[in-house]
Structure formats: structure tokens, C-alpha cells
């Protein structure tokens, strides 16, 4: 699955440490075959949006390939442990500061590791779904347009788990007072003190606007059943499916506007109306990827992604 990355016969080890010097992330950079999905070696955690795939296809055509590594999570990276342990004993070839005040280090592995690459069990695609799908389609339609491999970082998820956060929604044009009244008709609504920024518990959503937040829980089973009939059965308990197919459509229909949410990883601004989602669990993510159903689009934000740098030598 990984071989001949970055134009030379070598793997690379990437390590990220926080401001206190603790390891946040460690993994191996190589090149990912576009056949990884078909062979079952790459499990995709979410479905892709056609507009985003078309955008990535245009970027790939323009650049002739992708310069940003895909992010993959390996439940077991132990086959590469001897390579990693040997490599990090040397001086790093590159050091970059991270946004959190830590450091990201990159080492080139001894080229002998490419002669007989260690085999990995299936890995989870954490970030880069649209780039991978765009590259696969371009390569099938125009084999010479892009290479049959993409740069990829496979991280040791068992020892240094990726961070898991939900992706939230901002709903333009929604009146917050009317939205709260509508929500009370299909869910239990609990108001928080003005200015509070609570964290949603499992099963609870936060409706925000005007500098205030309301917790939405115990959503009507009737509303859920009626609006989730068109989604895969594996999605009916997932926050993004409930948000996008139940809550946001109900709030928008009451105000006569089309649901056109914008996605964000942080709290919406006080002047915006937003819906803060609880994150799904890792069990749900792995189960969805293994079954092929994946997750609804824009369900989660996994990281940290590598700090951009010069990957060629």
C-alpha cells in the first residue's frame, strides 16, 4: 500500500509533540495506491459531496496531483515499529512549529525499508475523502492526468489517538426566537444563561443565537421516524443525520426558508443562528466505515492534520 513516496525510495516518519514535549501523534508517510478502497485496505468514514469532489478534481488537474497528505488512522501500526524506532534515533530532517506551540518533526527512513514493506491491516481514512475520490475518478477516466498514488500519513491511532470533534452547522436567515419555539414542539428545550457556551452531552444538541444557547434533547420519535426514512438505517442515531434530516429542516420549514447550512468547527458568532452537535463515538465511526455506510457528510473533524511543509527532498 505504501511505496515510493515523494519521488524517492523511502518512507518518512512524522512526529508531533505538544508544548510540554509530550507526543501527540506519530506515524509514517508514504504513497497510497488509489486501489486501496477497492481492495478493502482503506475504509472510508463518510460519504462525499459531488460539488466538493468536482472542486478537488479541478485542483488535482491544475496541480497535477496533491501535495497535502491524506490522513489515515491505523488501529495497529506495530509492523512499522522497528522502522519508526530506528528512524527517530537520528536527527530530524525537518522541524516545524505547530499552532499549539509544539513541534512537528520529519525524518527520512532508511531506503532499505522499501525493499520489503511491512504489511498493514485495513486503515481508516480520517481526512481527504474528496481528494481521494477525485483522484480515483480522474485516474479511471484519464490515466495520464494524475498519478495512481497520493501522499498519505498513516498515524498510530492505538497509541496516539486522533482527536474527535463534531462539525457544527450555521443556518443563514433563521430567526432564533421562532426557532426556539419551533424546537419546543418536537424536543425538550432547556435554556442556558446568556453568554454560556456549554458542551453538548450525548443525545443533546445546542441551538445558539443572540449570545444565548438552548439545549435540545428527547427529540420526538414521530418526527425522527418520519424524516429519517430516507437515510441508511445505520445513520438513525448519528448526530449529523438528526441535525440535517430532522432538526434543521423542521426549523427552516416553519420559517419558509430553504435549509442551506454552513459548516464550522467552532461556536457560531453571536449574530448567527447555529446548531452545535455532539460528536459521534469512535465505535460508530469504525462500524460505519466497516459496513460501507460510512457517516453523513460533514459529521466530524479528526486531527490534527500535518503542518504544511516541504515534503520533497
Q: Number of DSSP strands?
A: 16
Distance between the ends: 21 Å
Poorly predicted segments: 1-7
- What is the ordering of alpha helices and beta strands? EEEHEHEEEHEEEHEEEHHEEHE
Q: Please tell me how large the radius of gyration is.
A: 22 Å
User: Sheet with the most strands?
Assistant: 8 strands, mixed
Tell me the β content: 25-35%
Helix content: 10-25%
Enumerate how many helices there are, as a single number. 7
Task: Describe this protein's structure.
With 313 residues, the protein is α+β, with helices and mostly antiparallel strands. Helix 4 (176-184) packs across helix 6. It contains seven helices and 16 strands. The two termini are 21 Å apart. The radius of gyration is 22 Å and the shape is globular. Helices cover 25% and strands 26% of the residues. The strands form three sheets. Strands 3-7-4-8-2-1-6-5 form an eight-stranded mixed sheet, sandwiched between helices. It has a six-stranded antiparallel sheet with strand order 11-13-12-15-10-14, covered by helices on one side. A hairpin with a 5-residue loop joins strand 1 and strand 2 (23-33). The longest helix is centred in the C-terminal third of the chain and has 17 residues, at 239-255.
Amino acid at each position: 500500500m505504501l511505496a515510493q513516496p515523494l519521488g524517492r525510495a523511502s518512507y518518512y516518519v512524522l512526529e508531533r509533540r505538544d508544548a510540554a514535549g509530550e507526543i501527540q501523534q506519530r506515524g509514517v508517510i508514504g504513497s497510497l495506491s488509489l486501489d486501496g478502497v477497492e481492495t478493502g485496505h482503506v475504509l472510508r468514514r463518510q460519504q462525499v459531496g459531488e460539488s466538493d469532489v468536482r472542486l478537488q478534481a479541478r485542483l488535482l488537474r491544475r496541480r497535477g496531483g496533491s501535495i497535502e497528505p491524506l490522513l489515515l488512522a491505523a488501529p495497529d501500526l506495530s509492523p512499522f515499529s522497528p522502522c519508526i524506532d530506528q528512524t527517530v534515533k537520528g536527527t530530524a530532517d525537518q522541524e516545524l512549529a505547530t499552532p499549539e506551540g509544539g513541534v512537528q518533526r520529519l525524518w527520512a527512513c532508511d531506503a532499505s525499508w522499501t525493499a520489503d514493506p511491512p504489511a498493514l491491516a485495513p486503515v481508516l481514512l480520517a481526512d481527504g475523502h474528496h481528494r481521494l475520490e477525485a483522484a480515483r475518478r480522474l485516474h479511471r477516466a484519464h490515466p495520464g492526468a494524475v498519478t495512481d498514488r497520493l501522499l498519505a500519513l498513516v498515524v498510530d491511532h492505538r497509541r496516539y489517538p486522533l482527536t474527535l470533534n463534531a462539525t457544527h452547522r450555521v443556518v443563514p436567515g433563521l430567526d432564533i426566537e421562532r426557532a426556539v419555539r419551533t424546537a419546543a414542539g418536537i424536543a425538550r428545550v432547556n435554556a442556558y444563561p446568556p453568554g454560556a457556551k456549554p458542551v453538548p452531552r450525548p443525545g443533546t444538541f445546542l441551538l445558539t443565537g443572540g449570545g444565548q444557547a438552548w439545549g435540545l434533547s428527547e427529540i420526538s420519535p414521530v418526527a425522527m421516524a418520519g424524516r429519517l426514512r430516507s437515510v441508511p438505517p445505520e445513520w438513525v442515531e448519528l448526530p449529523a443525520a438528526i441535525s440535517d434530516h430532522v432538526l434543521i429542516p423542521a426549523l427552516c420549514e416553519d420559517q419558509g426558508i430553504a435549509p442551506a447550512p454552513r459548516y464550522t468547527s467552532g461556536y457560531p458568532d453571536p449574530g448567527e443562528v447555529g446548531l452545535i452537535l455532539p460528536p459521534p463515538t469512535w465505535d460508530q465511526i469504525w462500524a460505519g466505515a466497516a459496513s460501507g455506510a460510512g457517516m453523513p457528510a460533514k459529521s466530524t473533524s479528526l486531527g490534527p492534520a500535518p503542518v504544511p511543509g516541504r515534503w520533497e527532498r
